[in-house]
């Protein structure tokens, strides 16, 4: 995705990734800092919203419990209650 100055198939550093992401965010008008952790949480949130598979997401994110995973991605009790109320088989 991002080429390294160190050569082909060499990873970029975390600080370089952070700088690239923040420049891209700035280029599209986002003022807040965007880092790799932001992308990880955003991935988790949207994965859960699309699949509702907290067990798989917990495994992907290497969390110790579903509760930690849901808290990590910002799914609160109201959202869970609404999802359960609206759920139909």
Quick synopsis:
The protein has helices at residues 14-27, 36-51, 54-61, 66-73, 77-86. It is mainly α and 89 residues long. The longest helix is centred in the middle third of the chain and has 16 residues, at 36-51.
Number of contiguous helices = 5
Strand tally? 0
**Quaternary class:** single chain
Please tell me how large the radius of gyration is.
17 Å
Mean pLDDT over the full residue set: 89
Shape: elongated
Percentage of β-strand residues: under 5%
Order of helices and strands: HHHHH
Describe this structure in words.
With about 90 residues, the protein is mainly α. It has a domain at about 40-85. The protein contains five helices and no strands. Helix 2 (about 35-50) packs across helix 4 and helix 3 crosses helix 4. It is elongated. The chain starts with 13 loop residues before the first helix and ends with a helix. The mean pLDDT is about 90.
List the helices and strands and how they pair.
Blueprint: H1 14-27, H2 36-51, H3 54-61, H4 66-73, H5 77-86
Helix pairs in contact: 2-4, 3-4
């Amino acid at each position: 995705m991002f080429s390294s100055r160190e050569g082909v198939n060499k990873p970029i550093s975390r600080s370089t990734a952070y700088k690239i992401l923040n420049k891209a965010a700035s280029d599209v008008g986002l003022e807040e800092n965007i880092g790799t952790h932001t992308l990880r949480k955003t991935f988790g949130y949207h994965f859960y919203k699309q699949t509702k598979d907290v067990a798989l997401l917990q495994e992907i994110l290497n969390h110790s419990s579903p509760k930690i995973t849901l808290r990590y991605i910002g799914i609160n009790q109201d959202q869970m209650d609404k999802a359960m109320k609206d759920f139909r088989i």
